[in-house]
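Protein: DUF8113 domain-containing protein
Species: Halohasta litchfieldiae
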Amino acid sequence: MAESTGFETELARARALLDAEDLTAVHVGVIHDDQTVDTVASRRTDTDTEEELQALSLLATHIRAVAAEAGVDYDTVAADAAAVAAQLEELPVTAPDDDESVDSESDT
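Structure follows.
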């Protein structure tokens, strides 16, 4: 069996995380060979947790991860991300409707 690369290891870890039964929110982003970026963001609407806090926690975690990988402080990454976000023509992610069932999303 060939030795796994870091990318393959992290991809397997991401798949395992997505299979967890206790998920309440998720944000996944991928970049394809042609540099196309696809993202998915969703949260359960049937939980008692604050939905806005979940989204902010996911964003903060991503900022920390990028900052650690780049060896820069969080403020720099956040400022750069805000600048890039302002340049996007349209946001590729839509939030689920509050009355939308999570089960109906997973059936597609």
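Remarks: Residues 98-108 have pLDDT under 50 and may be disordered.
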